[in-house]
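Posting this for the archive.
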Amino acid sequence: MRKEKLLKNMADQVKEAQIKLGYAAETVRLYYPVASLNGIMETDAADGQEMLALLRREFGGGTDLGELKFDCHGGRIEVSIPPEGARWVHEHVETPAFLEELIDLFRTNHACTLEEICGVFERCGGYVCEKMPEGSDFDYAIHLKDRSVDEYYYCIHMEMGHTIYHRFSEQDYRELL
């Protein structure tokens, strides 16, 4: 099992939220489909209850993110990260310059263009921009070639003068297709 990979994913999600909303010493709740957790941790839990048992066993001793709590809601697993976990991310996880610039673009320009978005990716090296299949919820998917800079896929949707993104792991992105 890849416990460390899940902890990194959780820290990445908390850091993204802190860049967008600012740091607050409060509980953070993340929601994962069982299939996503199976992919991250290289497990094969059949359902939410089996995944809960696995998570509670693996994370029972506490982590850098504090004492994590797990619950199941309609096939999704809720992970509750206590305030000390949010503080740990704020104090110990460096703010990625790429992600900060990307979020700032979306924050300051609600109708940013594909060219502006690709410009942020270009400043970090090579990237891949693909048109999403017809009928998809998104228009484009962009990711950096250098996965050490950022490992996520950014799916872009443009509608009625607004541009939004959603960030996915590679596995979750592949499942979208």
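The chain has a mean pLDDT of 95. Helices lie at 3-21, 34-41, 48-58, 83-92, 97-108, 114-122, 170-176.
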